[in-house]
Design a protein that fits this description.
InterPro entries: CC_star_Cory, DUF7990. The protein has 91 residues and is mainly α. The protein has 2 domains: 1-53, no CATH class; 54-91, no CATH class. It contains 3 helices and no strands. It has helices spanning 3-50, 56-61, 65-78. The longest helix is centred in the N-terminal third of the chain and has 48 residues, at 3-50. It is elongated and about 90 Å long. The chain starts with a helix and ends in a 13-residue tail after the last helix.
């Protein structure tokens, strides 16, 4: 194989790679990155949980408990239940 032919084949290969990148990879790049971040976050959560570190979101959700209890109260009234849950939980 001559050096000129090798250079020409290298240029053709680069063009094919550019077309492939444009048509296939670029279209899905954002979705692939989002999926990669989701998997990395899930892995970190599992790793932290296995090491005994509490989930940081659990502290944030404590602020929502009063609102959730109010919604639960409305829900069980709509379903026709007079009382719901243990004593002191809802009604």
């Amino acid at each position: 194989m001559t050096p000129a032919l090798r250079g020409r084949l290298a240029r053709v290969r680069r063009r094919v790679e550019a077309v492939h990148e444009e048509w296939f990879a670029a279209r899905w790049r954002q979705a692939l990155r989002r999926e990669d971040r989701r998997r990395a976050d899930a892995f970190r959560a599992v790793l932290l949980r296995s090491l005994g570190v509490d989930d940081p979101a659990s502290y944030e959700t404590l602020d929502l408990v009063p609102y959730l209890v109010a919604d639960l109260h409305e829900w069980h009234r709509r379903t026709g239940r007079e009382r719901f849950g243990d004593t002191g939980v809802c009604c």
